[in-house]
Design goal:
alpha+beta; BMC_CP; four-stranded antiparallel β-sheet; Alpha-Beta Plaits; BMC circularly permuted domain-containing protein; 8 strands
Length: 235
Amino acid sequence: MSTPTTTKQAAATKRSSASSAAPDSGTPSTELRVYLRIEGLQRQFAATMATPTRARGYPPKAGDHSLIVEVAPALAIQRVIDAALKATPEVEPGLLYVERQYGILEVHSPSADVVEQAGQAILKTLNAKAEDQLKPKILYSDIIEEIGDQHAVILNRTRDASMLMPGSALLVYEMAPALFAAVAANSAERVAPNLTLVDVQMIGAAGRLFISGDLKSVTIAREEITRVLEAVIGR
């Protein structure tokens, strides 16, 4: 029978071993919140992603393929980018953002295979699968017809993309997690290329899209966004 002292020593040794092993065990406690593959960046969305407020690293170009990842805790994103770049040096990091609760990374390449390799390295590091991400929730959507002059002015003061013109229809769309605004914007532009991306807010508690154009275009865009978000596999 073990003595009390021996039992305590064994327990202490076990705790010490577990503690020392943690840094080398990858990031098993890291939550994969978003794992978004975006095939073929559309022209307006790529330009939005290439602005200094988005592309703090290498700006993407139209036609590039992109992967956007969100994890928690936020600083775990440093392990994520390390895994992606060491496994696939050809991939370009565009956005690396550490907010209060979540860490966000965007990587891109003209080659879909390169992006896929980076993604697999990330998933392996997180010991996760793509479908472990959160399933997006649609929080709100609406189409406002014939935007007035004053309404356009006040929205244009805070936009990050193209100007909202008075008289156009405006689609507003909100979802969570916020990063799903990225795939929503790109998908909307793909099916209705003559629309105008006014703002894409993809970081924060919720994602928000402001898309303008003729009523037919923004209606098609809303239907496509809803279809894409509802088709995402997640928990």
